[in-house]
Amino acid sequence: MSRPSQMRLHAFSTGTITLPFGSFLPGSKGKITVPVPCYLIDHPKGRAMVDTGIHPEIAGGSVARLGEVARYFTINITPSEVVDAQIARIGFGPADVDLIINTHLHYDHCGGNICLPDARVIVQRREWQAANDPLEIAANNYNPDDYAHCSDHLHLVEGEHDVFGDGSVVCLPTYGHTPGHQSVRIAMAGRRILLCGDACYLRENLERLTPSMVCRDKDAARAALRRLMDYREQGIELIYGHDPVQWEALRAAPDMFV
Q: Quick check: 253 pLDDT over 70?
């Protein structure tokens, strides 16, 4: 499929997760249902998915691969919401995706990598190292089955990384939620957008400078929130990781987000 003359951005949700509200925002009561977003960047130099959502086995009804987290989360996803089915809605197939930028390697951010088997995977080196360390796997609830198959297509980066070499898509380290979490800054169509990933689940996490309970290093996570606050003060539009209120206001595929 031919490349666009200008960059475009599409947003998808690969289902929803219902979980205790307090795990997202400490002190909150009850439960919250959140989207599981991923994004397709259609750039003149290539197509990149930012995260890939939930594994297709879970859409087929199998939650066994989730392990312990299945006790606390309720996942709602259908086969039509898996990442390859989502991109098909706008005319793309797995072979049309050149890159996957994983913000981190939790099941709801890299589970769909298996659907895009030829894409090169961009991840922070320290995230990959943690996700392959037995102690960190246990501490961070990683599941190597979600990403072990990516080892032949890896592009490990350290710190800031300009994906296409023109400043339009830049990976930014926002460690804390996991040891090597990264967010993604996008500059296009006169807008500057930052896909926070799980560096900031909800707007309230930023307003209160309060990391979620699901956090490997709370000091690093709080420092990442301060950086996100600085970016917002610079006029960069923040897209939070799993904010249901913000998601309802976004233009999701098949419409173009930008």
A: no
- Mean of pLDDT values over 79-104: 96
Domain count, the chain: 1
Average pLDDT of span 164-172: 97
CATH number of the domain residue 228 falls in: 3.60.15.10
Q: Give the structural domain span for 32.
A: 8-249
Question: Is 258 inside any structural domain?
Answer: no
pLDDT tens digit string along 46-67? 999 999 999 999 887 777 788 7
- Cα Rg of the chain (Å, integer): 17
Q: Which residues pair with 122 in a beta bridge?
A: 101, 155
Question: Is 50 a domain residue?
Answer: yes
pLDDT at 159: 97
Does the residue 147 lie in any domain? Answer: yes
Q: Do the domain assignments include residue 85? A: yes
CB neighbour burial string for 132-145, b if at least 16 within 10 angstroms, e if fewer: eeeebeeebebbee
Q: What is the pTM (predicted TM-score) of this model?
A: 0.95
